Amino acid sequence: MGPLSRETWAQRLGAFRASPSAFMAGPEGEDLGRDLLNELRSEKLSEQTKVSLLALSLEYPAQLWPDAAAAEAAATSLLDTLVLLPPRPSALRRPLLLAATTALAAGDALGPTSGASRRLLPLLLGLASGRDLGRGFGPASEQRPLQATACECLRELESCKPGLLGGCLGLLRSLLGQEGPVQPLSLLLALALRNTLVIQARARAGLQGLLVAGDMPAAGGPWNWTLAEEADAHLQPQAPSWPAAEEEECGLAVLEPSPEEARELRAAVAQLLDTSYLLTPVAQAQLLWLLGWALRGLRGQPPVLFKPQLVRLLGTAQLTLLHAVLALKAAFGEALFTAQDEALLLRRLTLAAQHPALPLPAHLFYLHCLLNFPENCPLGPTGEETAPLLLGPRLCRGLLPSLLHDPSALLAHLHLLCLLCAEDEEKEEKGQDWCPRHYLGELLAGLRQRAALHGGPRALATLCFQASYLVVHCLATQPTVLTPLTHGLARLYRARPALAPHFVDLLDRVGPELGEPLRTALRQEVVSRPGRDEALRWHLQILSKVADGKAPSATLGFLRAAAAHCTDWGLQQALLQVCRALLRAGVGEGLADLLQALARQLEDPDGRDRARLYYILLAHLAGPKLGVALGPSLAAPALTSSLVAENQGFAAVLMVQEAPAPMRLSVGPRRAAGPVPVLQLQVEVLEPLYSVELRFRVEGQLYAPLGAVHVPCLLPGRPCRPLHLPLQPRRPAPAQLAVRALFATPAGLTCHAHLPPLPVNFADLFLPFPRAPDGDKQGFFEELWDSCLPEGAESRLWCPLGPQGLEALVARHLDPFVVVAQPPTSYHVAIRLPPASRLLLRLEAAQGDGVPVALRTDDWAVLPLAGDYLRGLSAAV
């Protein structure tokens, strides 16, 4: 295949980016990587296009080179292309270096046996040192960009193979003192130093003179593959969190460098720290992370080396640098930070979190720092959440949560307030003006008051329950907080039962400290205030969660009263779900009479059968077996009672199960007659179905609710009469009908399935006017035509005819609605659109390729729909 054009490559790259996996599985996927490498050497493509191709290899290396062999070949080809570039300035050198590095790293082809690795590594180190710039690598103007790119590539390879550059530490130190890009070299040296220290510590070996500056190693032997192989896992270049890692994970405490090695190590760290001010804030933070975790716990290396940097960084406004400072504090504690430093840092975080103009992400960051502040001498066990000791009441006044806060900020402030309440019990007993628990109670009451507003935003209710869960999580052992919280939540449910799903979710997440009293309070609220209609559904949902063996008589009394109002299937199933919960709780007295009554009085046969099943289980099974039979899983241990084994299959029969749709439903020919539009539905089934019920639903308010269509029996291969579905549009507009089928299978199972949606086209709503008086059809049409204005709208458009002509088009689509006809060139059409609109058409002076159409309607919203319909008539034939 010849070279591809720029447009062809743009199409291929667009298709690949849309779905890389689908493109690679297609016919063009196998050749994409090879074509990309070949086109990089083509002189017909511009450098900009080639840079786009290289960007693709950087973004999707795993898809283009899926195995080590392909990655090796790709890296070799990319290096060959780099060598063949002319000496003039080129935008391809840096992308080619990055692409070759990415191919080796992503394809796991980097190793001592890889030819591409043996070519790339000396090239990168030579470029980073400035020695290979000159012939074949462009002019001197590209020196610094190429040096920076080479350092980035080496850093990526060192991350993939930790310890790879262990033998080059001395060279990298010498390069840092020369003219060159400071930031890439600093980050490269810091990463290589950190990895070497960790690996040598694990191997119980010293630094062995690795930090001593020297000449660049000879070709073929500069890379410490031994160290890379000893690094059995990829080391994290940054600490994942503030708490200090375990000593055995870091492995640095066992490394005891000699005095000379310790002196060289201090000199290397000091050299990096002295140049850190030249780095960007993000790079400075990463450098501090690497050095801090490299020296953490290293014997003979005091963290005082970081002290000059702290003088500069304690007042920084950069969040990344502040985060790095806090990480150093977590790593070294009082060995690096004095009590005055700790107080200053804590006060600065507190004041910054109160700044009124602070963006929300920065606000949350400062609050997170306060919640996880690494203290020099923390009290209590490790890992326990506590507020900083120096965070006194005066500092906390500005950090109190408010109902005006953003939800995420409010929860963060509330978390801090809960930690203060947990530590402030003794101070409250002594008596003080400001009481954190009192403020906490008022805040929770305000949240519950907003959540109780009927019709209020769902976010307010969600925030209230999130806050309640947070309080329980932090103050689970303090009944003075949980008791009013329980009563407040019970009052919230009394005011707004529709929040029942939130209460169920809260009960699933909290422990017994709040769960048990809240269950009791909610049960008392429900049984003392039986509701009807919507409230009854929520009451039953709560009861199914909180019903137990306590006070069963009140619960059974509520269920007896509620049974008379459970008229639909959903309420009846909810009622029986409460009975199931009582069964599992071991309630027997009174429940048997209720189940017998339900088996007789429920209208739905499914509900009656389920009540009868529960009664049989209650009468024949003891408590342990009954609990197993009603457990959440059918994979229960085999029991000696045969009734339980039969019950598993019986319960499956009683359940309405979801199944794949065994039928196809389509819209048949249009029937324009009667007072309302009717869809004719055609059904084809793949297996025998019985008692079929088709339910239809329309999104929005365009149509009135549609009735269900019932079919006693459907058999495959046997034609079924068309099913009629009356439509009641509230506006004359097309729609989509969601279809759900409920049916019984020959095996006796009741199933439901979702069918593909059915379209209701604009033409499906057409209805004819009553027959015009004989002899006065033209006058009848003119009267309708004049009645549309001035309230209505009028328009004109061109209706293409195609090869069939006007007469055939009218006969096929508009014949039931023609009032006046003068074939083959003129027709007057009157269409009635429910509920109370009309559409009138004048098709006159037809020409060979189309006919001008004049439209009038008393509903302006019909005009665009009518225009689209008429323009599509020729294509519909």
Automatic annotation (TrEMBL):
This is AP-5 complex subunit beta-1. The gene is AP5B1. Keywords: Protein transport, Transport. The lineage of its organism: Eukaryota, Metazoa, Chordata, Craniata, Vertebrata. GO terms for biological process: endosomal transport; protein transport. Residues 35-104 form the AP-5 complex subunit beta-1 N-terminal domain. InterPro entries: AP5B1, AP5B1_barrel, AP5B1_C, AP5B1_middle, AP5B1_N. One of its GO terms (cellular component) is lysosomal membrane. Residues 689-758 form the AP-5 complex subunit beta-1 beta-barrel domain. Residues 780-872 form the AP5B1 C-terminal domain. Residues 261-626 form the AP5B1 middle domain. It comes from Zalophus californianus (California sealion). PANTHER family: AP-5 COMPLEX SUBUNIT BETA-1. Pfam families: AP5B1_barrel, AP5B1_C, AP5B1_middle, AP5B1_N.
